[in-house]
């Protein structure tokens, strides 16, 4: 280990020289970025040229990070990459905050991150007595409600949550759409007749904006304003996507694997279990990831127009009553749900496809 | 209060309306802007902003050196953002909860001219109840709506919610006592027919459709007689940077209002304006009870306080103390217009 990390004596001056050059370049780019922005600001033209100033500053920042990256020792590389991944969004948020504070952007319509976080906190801790809802269902009251009414009390508490309302619609719709979608996709992948019969129809339905067919879906239910239509429209979107993706995944399996399976004497079920499903799995999971994102988009759009509970509803509600901080906070919750669901799917993927680890 | 104002307004002698010649001569004192200025007007395409449509159809904006660009918006909230940013100069919008929130946040966008007033009697907006529920005796009065599903267009804090609140208030109920459902006006007849809702607040021609189909009956009407629920709201930037344009815009509206009184309401020039800027039909215009345009062109401040109170009590605003109504109304331009046109007030 020691020999690996030791620097060859002959290379040391060259590394030092390179570091020196990188340091100088970083200093130069930094000075250019500051001079550019200060110059435009002093000339009173920063605001009209804001797009140019931001783009130029971003390019200079990329150059600075490139140079800084060269100076980072190998053992610190991971930390540096993490810094870039989280540091850049943090920098954008900090600049947004400052721009709002000094009036460069209109804080009424583009409230600073601190105000959005304040709004989010208020939404988390606040129980709306008018609608009987809260953002996450006040989980800190679970012991108290459990003590009073047992599980019934806990359920009553959690059912007031906008987040759980949205998550339950997404997960129900996702499962209802993904499972038959994958099954039909496999059938279409292996059977040409079924594929020819359904492919055109599915392609046609795929491009329909699901929110546009929502009123028709509502007509199919005895209670058009209940949960049924919302879940079905999500399931429909997921089903179409998963069918098309799975079919593509099955058809994309290398013929060598199919031939090998047959040569080993695998019957239909064995081919399916050991060759076709595992072979299509990467594409299926890629499809699931897209379908999950689509499910979120569809459910949020539906909640915008036809719901009394849910993150989409609460986001649009705060726009309707002109509370932009909380509207942004709602969007933030949507993004966090997206991240959560994506990580959940990745975890599932690692479980289902251990060979990809 | 606003009923009184309206009665007074309507009682203004016919001579007032016939005196258009005098009006024209006074108005000629106001020179057109040279070169003409562009005014961006964002509006919800409903008949309650018909004075603007008439001013456009009759060339009144052009007469005062204004090039008014009409931009349709879906809701008042959409227009509020543009008004605050100054990308829209005037908004023809409903006085909804978001507008009160905007004012409470100190956004500078005062009401500069009145929209239409609801008719005193037989107004176009009615509270419908499903016929089967009425005939079975399940719902015979507004108080029977407790726990029932009531549809309104526009969602939380909207004009529709305000109207339902007023209807429920008459029976000692609030919107928390019913299940409010947001349904588009065009979907109301179908929702009643499918028994998805028990009652619905809607206007002509959708109310007529449901009644004609035999699926609904009127439960309550004239919830807000004589009340102004919409207004012309100006961007603070517009009135501070281009007050001359604002003055002429309001003057054109005032002059158009004079041309909409009595039988003139359905004159071919006016109808052309209505049809151009809304989705209404000539038949609907002739059949329906027209909304009222106060010839005295006053902004009815008293009624505004009631709208503010209802939205606040419904929990649609973040603030809790009443807003000072006089701070959200700028009567400078309506007063100038009245003087220029010699209006009796």
Features:
heterodimer; A: 357 residues; mainly alpha; MetI-like fold; 2 domains; 0% strand; B: 345 residues; alpha/beta; D-Maltodextrin-Binding Protein, domain 2; 5-stranded mixed β-sheet; 10 strands; 41% helix
How many DSSP H or I helices of chain B? 17
Shape of chain B: globular
Shape of chain A: globular
- How many domain modules of chain B? 2
- Using only C-alpha atoms, the radius of gyration of chain B works out to 20 Å
| CATH topology type of the largest domain in chain A | MetI-like fold
Termini Cα gap of chain A: 26 Å
Number of helical segments of chain A?
14
Structure description:
The complex is a heterodimer of chains A (357) and B (345). With 357 residues, chain A is mainly alpha-helical. Chain A folds into 2 domains: 100 residues, no CATH class; 201 residues, MetI-like fold. Helix content of chain A is 78%, strand content 0%. Chain A is built from 14 helices and no strands. The N terminus of chain A is likely disordered. Chain B has 345 residues and is an alpha/beta fold. Chain B folds into 2 domains: 232 residues, Periplasmic binding protein-like II (D-Maltodextrin-Binding Protein, domain 2), CATH 3.40.190.10; 97 residues, D-Maltodextrin-Binding Protein, domain 2 (3-Layer(aba) Sandwich). Chain B is 41% helix and 15% strand. In chain B, strand 6, helix 9 and strand 7 form a beta-alpha-beta unit. In chain B, helix 13 packs across helix 17.
Summarize the structure.
Chain A is mainly α and 357 residues long.
């Amino acid at each position: 280990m020691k020999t690996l990390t030791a620097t060859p004596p002959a290379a040391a001056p060259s590394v030092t020289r390179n570091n020196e050059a990188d340091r100088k370049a970083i200093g130069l780019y930094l000075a250019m970025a500051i001079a550019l922005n200060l110059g435009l600001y002093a000339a009173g033209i920063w605001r009209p040229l804001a797009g140019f100033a931001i783009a130029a500053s971003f390019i200079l920042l990329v150059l600075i990070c490139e140079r800084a990256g060269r100076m980072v020792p190998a053992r610190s590389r991971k930390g540096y990459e993490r810094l870039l991944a989280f540091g850049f969004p943090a920098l954008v948020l900090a600049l947004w905050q400052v721009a709002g504070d000094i009036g460069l952007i209109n804080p009424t319509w583009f409230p600073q991150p601190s105000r959005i976080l304040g709004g989010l906190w208020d939404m988390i801790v606040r129980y709306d007595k008018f609608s009987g809802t809260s953002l996450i269902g006040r989980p800190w009251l679970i012991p108290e409600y459990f003590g009073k009414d047992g599980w019934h009390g806990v359920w009553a508490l959690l059912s007031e949550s906008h987040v759980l309302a949205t998550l339950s619609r997404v997960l129900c719709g996702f499962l209802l759409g993904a499972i038959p979608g994958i099954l039909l996709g496999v059938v279409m992948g292996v059977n040409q007749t079924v594929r020819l019969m359904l492919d055109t129809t599915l392609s046609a339905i795929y491009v329909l904006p699901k929110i546009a067919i929502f009123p028709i879906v509502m007509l199919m239910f005895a209670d058009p304003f209940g949960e049924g239509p919302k879940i079905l429209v999500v399931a429909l979107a997921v089903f179409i996507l998963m069918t098309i993706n799975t079919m593509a995944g099955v058809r994309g399996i290398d013929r060598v694997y199919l031939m090998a399976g047959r040569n080993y004497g695998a019957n239909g079920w064995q081919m399916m279990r050991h060759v076709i499903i595992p072979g299509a799995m990467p594409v299926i999971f890629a499809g699931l990831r897209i379908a999950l994102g689509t499910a979120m988009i569809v459910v949020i759009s539906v909640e915008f127009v036809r719901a009394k509970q849910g993150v989409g509803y609460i986001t649009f509600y705060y726009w309707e009553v002109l509370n932009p901080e909380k509207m942004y906070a709602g969007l933030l919750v949507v993004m966090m749900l997206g991240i959560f669901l994506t990580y959940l799917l990745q975890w599932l993927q690692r479980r289902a496809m251990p060979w990809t680890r | 209060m606003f009923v009184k104002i309206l009665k007074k307004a309507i009682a203004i002698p016919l001579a007032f309306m016939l005196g258009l010649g005098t009006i024209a001569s006074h108005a000629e004192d106001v020179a057109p802007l040279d070169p003409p200025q562009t005014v961006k007007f964002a509006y919800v395409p409903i008949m309650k902003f018909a004075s603007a449509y008439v001013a456009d159809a009759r060339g009144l904006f052009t007469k005062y050196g204004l090039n008014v660009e009409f931009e349709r918006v879906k809701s008042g909230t959409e227009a509020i953002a543009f008004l605050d940013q100054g990308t829209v100069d005037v908004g023809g919008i409903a006085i909804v909860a978001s507008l009160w929130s905007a004012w409470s946040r100190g956004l500078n966008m005062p009401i500069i001219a009145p929209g239409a007033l609801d008719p005193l009697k037989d107004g176009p907006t009615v509270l419908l109840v499903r016929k089967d529920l009425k005939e079975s005796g399940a719902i015979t009065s507004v108080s029977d709506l407790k726990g029932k599903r009531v549809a309104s267009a526009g969602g939380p804090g909207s004009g529709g919610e305000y109207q339902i609140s007023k209807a429920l208030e008459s029976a000692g109920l609030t919107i928390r006592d019913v299940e409010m459902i947001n349904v588009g006006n065009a979907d109301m007849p179908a929702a009643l027919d499918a028994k998805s809702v028990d009652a619905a607040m809607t206007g002509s021609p959708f109310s007529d459709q449901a009644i004609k189909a035999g699926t609904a009956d009127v439960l309550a009407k004239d919830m807000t007689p004589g009340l102004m629920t919409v207004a012309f709201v100006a961007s603070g930037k517009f009135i501070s940077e281009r007050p001359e344009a604002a003055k002429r815009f309001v003057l054109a509206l005032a002059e158009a209002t004079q041309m909409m009184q009595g039988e003139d309401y359905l004159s071919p020039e006016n109808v052309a304006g209505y049809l151009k800027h809304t989705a209404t039909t000539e038949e609907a215009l002739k059949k329906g009870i027209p909304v009222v345009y106060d010839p005295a062109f006053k902004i009815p401040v008293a009624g505004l306080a009631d709208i503010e109170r209802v939205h606040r009590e419904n929990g649609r605003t973040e603030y809790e103390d009443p807003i000072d109504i006089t701070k959200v109304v700028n009567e400078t331009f309506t007063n100038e217009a009245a003087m220029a046109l010699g209006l009796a007030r």
